[in-house]
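Exam prep: given the inputs below (a chain plus fe (ii) ion), describe the expected output before reading on.
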Amino acid sequence: MGATVAISTAAVVAAFLFFGSSVGYGGLTAITIFTLLAFVTGALESSPKAGIGGSILFVAHLSAAITTGPLGASVVALLSSLLTQVWLRRESIKVLFNVAQVTLSVVVGSSFYLFAGGQLRSSNFSNQDFLAYAALVFGYFATNSAFVSGAVAISRGERFSEIWRSQIMRAAGYDLVASGLGLLIAWMYTRFGPLSIFAVTLPILALRQAYRDNLDLKKANEELVRHHRELLDYTVKQIEARDPYTSGHSRRVAEYAQILAEEAGLTAKQVEDVATAALLHDVGKVYHEFGSVLQKEGRLSYEEKLLLQSHPVRSAELIATIGSLRGAVESAVKHHHENYDGSGYPEGLRGESIPVGSRIIMIADTLDAMTTDRPYRKALPFDRVLEEFRKYSGKQFDPRLADLAMRSYAIRRCVIASSSPTSGLTSKKPTPPRPSIRVRA
Ligand SMILES: [Fe+2]
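Solution:
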């Protein structure tokens, strides 16, 4: 690798001096500036974080092509690709191929530009120049993609045409938009002088880097949240595995809660939060301290009741360990045993001061408890369920939400679909829906 760096350094210096002397002082300045621009762009794209989005290294090459012409642009392409390939990416095998294909692409593109009547160093582009620039972009990408596709086709033994088509389709839109930047940079160079191009490109590169960092961070965060959610789902299954009678309880509660939240007119985000909270509402029961109380048959002592009543707070604490669930989901879980008349726990909240998600979970939770078989009783017929809701409306349940649940055809259908054939619920024919009322969030 040391020898490659030394040889390429010598080649860069020699090429710079040879071509630089032949294009004069103005050409030398342009070559230096555009090589520097391409190198800075390449350096930023070679950072370990630069894994997303396409390259914009070619923009500096396009600008060089319409400022210095084919000869100068080919020097810029040669120097910058040698510098980035060998010094930054430490690639020795592909160096020759990459340097050659980039340089040739630039020569073809800039020749197209001149052939199509484009002017060099223009600060006042005419329609002819724009057309010529389109020819340059076409020539550059056609050559570049043909070389890359050819190399891939040979190394993989696949059809060239298919790889070429997919190469072009993959980056076409992005490259076309970024190509416009090459025209702007060349115009800035001629109009305001060599250093002005950094005034426009450095902020763009910085923005691009910030965007990439942000995307990386977002991706990492989503991954973390997904892992946490999987862990919590697993925890829910663990709790339900302790007791066959509660198997699938959380999933059903989440389904009913989601329907009720939608029918109550909550926003899509609120509905999602309510469904998540409903799925995880009893997750705190996974703690060891609840094991004996949950499995105990018969009456609980006063202390045991107090302990059991701490499960909403313990669930909320566990949920709050996931950043994205803090806030709405956390408080909906914490208050899912609050009664509408203030007689619930943990804080004895009353009426609308109870989060709407908690009031919905209270109904969905009770609905599932009543419509599934328990060790001490069979599932209640739907008429009895409605009776209970009517009886405790305004006491345990938010009256408007309870009314909505009783009228909901979707909830009734969902209850019947998820109840066991022996529960007696399936024999009941659902009654046609009546107009539903809206509940304020
Ligand atoms: Fe609970």
